[in-house]
Amino acid sequence: MQIQISNHNFEPTRNLSSYINKKLKGLKKFIPKGHRDDTTINVSLKREPSTDEPFLCDIIIHTYPKKEFVIKERAVNMFAAIDICQAKLTRQLRKHKETLQDESRSDTKKTLRKVRQMVDKDFFGKQN
């Protein structure tokens, strides 16, 4: 999993960069093992001083074949924006992983059903 951080009108501190890495590395458990090495995370940090919530955090996760997760969040400080983005990404990735697991279980059940029918037909002469 690769994390790339870019910034606009804002210079992140070393603490902020390590905070981002720590928070986003925790998302690894929601990405299937076979796709973790291919996953890239792009983090864009922006500061727009003319607004009430001047800090903007955009996170884009590219994973799975042609699958992308995008989160944008504004907050009064960058740490808060990162926390909110991480919470939203956790929900999205967890839901996606559960969907993949449900599809896999469904395929397994269909395969088992076909095998049982073949066994019944071949060995017992039954057809369901």
Tell me about this structure:
The mean pLDDT is 85. Helix 1 runs parallel beside helix 2. A hairpin with a 7-residue loop joins strand 2 (40-47) and strand 3. This protein starts with a strand and ends with a helix. It has helices at residues 14-25, 78-124, and strands spanning 2-8, 40-47, 55-63, 67-75. It is elongated. By secondary structure, the chain is an alpha+beta fold. The protein has one domain (2-124): 2-Layer Sandwich (Double Stranded RNA Binding Domain). The longest helix has 47 residues, at 78-124. It has two helices and four strands; from the N terminus they run E-H-E-E-E-H. It has a four-stranded mixed sheet, covered by helices on one side.
Widest sheet, order of strands: 1-2-3-4
Task: Please report the distance between the alpha carbons of the first and last residues.
Answer: 48 Å
Spell out the helices and strands N to C.
EHEEEH
Reported by name, the CATH topology is Double Stranded RNA Binding Domain
Number of strands: 4
CATH class descriptor: Alpha Beta
Cα shape: elongated
